[in-house]
Amino acid sequence: xxxxxxxxxxxxxxxxxxxxxxxxxxxxxxxxxxxxxxxxxxxxxxxxxxxxxxxxxxxxxxxxxxxxxxxxxxxxxxxxxxxxxxxxxxxxxxxxxxxxxxxxxxxxxxxxxxxxxxxxxxxxxxxxxxxxxxxxxxxxxxxxxxxxxxxxxxxxxxxxxxxxxxxxxxxxxxxxxxxxxxxxxxxxxxxxxxxxxxxxxxxxxxxxxxxxxxxxxxxxxxxxxxxxxxxxxxxxxxxxxxxxxxxxxxxxxxxxxxxxxxxxxxxxxxxxxxxxxxxxxxxxxxxxxxxxxxxxxxxxxxxxxxxxxxxxxxxxxxxxxxxxxxxxxxxxxxxxxxxxxxxxxxxxxxxxxxxxxxxxxxxxxxxxxxxxxxxxxxxxxxxxxxxxxxxxxxxxxxxxxxxxxxxxxxxxxxxxxxxxxxxxxxxxxxxxxxxxxxxxxxxxxxxxxxxxxxxxxxxxxxx
Length: 463
Ligand SMILES: C[S@@+](CC[C@H](N)C(=O)[O-])C[C@H]1O[C@@H](n2cnc3c(N)ncnc32)[C@H](O)[C@@H]1O
Fold this sequence. Notes:
Layout lengths: L1 E3 L4 E3 L14 H17 L16 E3 L1 H4 L22 H11 L5 E4 L6 H8 L3 E6 L3 H9 L9 H12 L12 H4 L2 H15 L5 H16 L14 H12 L2 H27 L6 E5 L14 E6 L9 H4 L1 H6 L4 H9 L14 H9 L3 H22 L7 E7 L2 E2 L2 E2 L2 H10 L3 E10 L19 E9 L3
The structure holds S-adenosylmethionine (SAM).
């Protein structure tokens, strides 16, 4: 069963696979170890083998190698919606199989595009997803939809043909709309959206919605491959050229091909989640540092990647999508103010590492940024981690960004904070950033100057 609290959808989900996902067969494990060792030899900065396994220092691994069954980070429905700084699914799969049991519950308080939700479903776990960004509520019903059996490409094509004849209208509640669209494109999009919005709920309606979101960004003045909403000179020039060509045919072609691609991916998912009785409960549009939820059964694991310190501005990035999806200017403004780390800290968190960084920081604004970041990030983690069962794990995936040239060892700060709150340190893994697609198609090899990301694993000592 998938429940989406904000939009109130309830979908019955047939099963996936019976057995726990097997990541390691004995021979496979040996192969992985050989590859890991080769990696060590190749990279002189890797920690020495003798310091491995004591858990106190990062162990250099590659989740892509550790989880070889996932060969494409966008497989199945993982990339239906554009979302910046997504988890690579290998990290999530690793945490699920290592640290949670079949049919248990996992929580992601910074769920973004619901990577944890889909992986949980595929591994037969239940998931609770929280995120400030209400886009989560639109992503979840499609990403994990179970009504694939009814789908066929011809019906979808008929619906799209009907949409093109639409005389209905929908205009987003946004005073600045004309800034982002040439009038002729806005006219067409408003008709297409008007038609989509009168469709009764169905998987087709969700597919068309997701395809329209993509097209509406691509045919706007907004740089659609960037993590922030802005007009770029290249995009302006691109749109000028488009307007001189048969832009309408291009728009329709993008709409049809995107919708068909989504449809095929949703159909591929069908046999994998057939008969699955697990649940994914999504709460989009909530502040995880101040949101109370209940877990129906034992909570085995928190698996999450908090926002970066030099924040991404997720709400602003998704603004165009959110307006077309029917969210109001007022709601988006309100949510933007709750985004980490833009709020002033109402409590100063101290740990040895935070204190030592702050002692070296000359700029007060950066010191305040650190306070705000750790105040709300740690509070959101604590809010979910307190619900873990005894022995349950928190798997937190973070970077080590720099502020004013000083490295902020986020994994260490998270550990220090929770060691004082009933958790034991279990492990920290270092994963070199390769092609993490932070910004859509653009491959950013070194976001925020970071070369690695870290997965810190803590275990709860008592209830
Ligand atoms: C690194 S992204 C998570 C991406 C996610 N792991 C995925 O695979 O798509 C961090 C998320 O934190 C969310 N966020 C920022 N401030 C928040 C808050 N106060 N409460 C809940 N979520 C917040 C952002 O909306 C963003 O989706």
